[in-house]
């Protein structure tokens, strides 16, 4: 559901800026079936779990048309950042409940809430890596001068290879960031 909320947040951010593409395609829904990608939601997570010991995958990206956004300079940044912000908000809500009510919650609830916090922090941190098509690339490109558009095109051209490299090289670094943020929010190790 965290991935679904992430994607729906992109769609609502675009809608609030004047682009109804996601709305017209029926993607502003929390129904997970609308967001499943046969390759990224089933096959890739299964293969990565069986081969690497962790599940990696994705949902269908919510479509939007950047040319419909009222703010052409910052609109893409707003749409991109909406997904990771939604994951951070979920992590903070559940993390603060854990922090302040851990003594009265059953152990199974503590485990579930800890898992929700960790998953959402992981989604936010991973999506903020500045490699296309991840949200972090759109954040980066919003701040780069126009003369760097060729750099953007080159990154987009090799994005699949760069994502694979990031998935193979960065897990320990990213898990360190997630662990730190988890402790900061929940007060737990």
Task: Give the topology.
Blueprint: H1 2-16, H2 21-24, H3 38-52, H4 75-101, H5 107-127, H6 135-143, H7 149-157, H8 159-169, H9 171-186
Helix pairs in contact: 1-4, 4-5, 4-6, 5-9
Structural summary, described in words:
By secondary structure, the protein is an all-alpha fold. The protein has one domain. Helices cover 67% and strands 0% of the residues. The protein contains nine helices and no strands. Helix 4 (75-101) packs across helix 6. The longest helix is centred in the middle third of the chain and has 27 residues, at 75-101. It starts with a helix and ends with a helix. The model has no long low-confidence stretch (mean pLDDT 92).
Task: Note the main attributes of this structure.
single chain, 189 residues, mainly alpha, globular
In short:
By secondary structure, the chain is mainly alpha-helical.
Radius of gyration: 17 Å
Number of strands: 0
What is the mean predicted local confidence, pLDDT? 92
The helix tally amounts to: 9
Q: pLDDT below 50 for ≥5 consecutive residues: which ranges? A: none
Structural class based on helices, strands and sheet pairing: mainly alpha
Helix share bin: 55-70%
Shape: globular
What's the order of the H and E elements?
HHHHHHHHH
What oligomeric state do these chains adopt?
Answer: single chain
Strand content of the residues, in percent? under 5%
Q: Sheet bearing the most strands, described?
A: none
CA-to-CA gap between the ends? 25 Å
Our count of domains comes out at 1
């Amino acid at each position: 559901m965290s991935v679904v909320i992430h994607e729906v947040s992109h769609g609502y951010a675009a809608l609030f800026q004047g682009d109804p593409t996601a709305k017209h395609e029926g993607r502003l829904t929390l129904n997970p079936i609308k967001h499943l990608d046969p390759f990224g939601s089933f096959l890739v997570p299964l293969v990565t779990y069986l081969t690497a010991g962790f599940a990696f995958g994705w949902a269908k990206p919510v479509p939007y048309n950047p040319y419909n956004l009222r703010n052409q300079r910052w609109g893409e940044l707003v749409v991109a950042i909406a997904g990771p912000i939604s994951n951070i908000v979920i992590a903070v809500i559940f993390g603060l409940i854990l922090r302040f009510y851990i003594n009265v919650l059953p152990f199974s609830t503590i485990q579930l809430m800890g898992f929700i916090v960790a998953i959402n922090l992981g989604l936010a941190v991973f999506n903020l890596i500045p490699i296309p098509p991840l949200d972090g690339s759109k954040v980066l490109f919003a701040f780069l001068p126009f003369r760097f558009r060729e750099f953007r095109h080159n990154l987009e051209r090799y994005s699949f290879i760069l994502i694979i490299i990031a998935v193979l090289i960065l897990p320990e670094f990213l898990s360190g960031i997630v662990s730190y943020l988890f402790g900061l929010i929940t007060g737990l190790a």
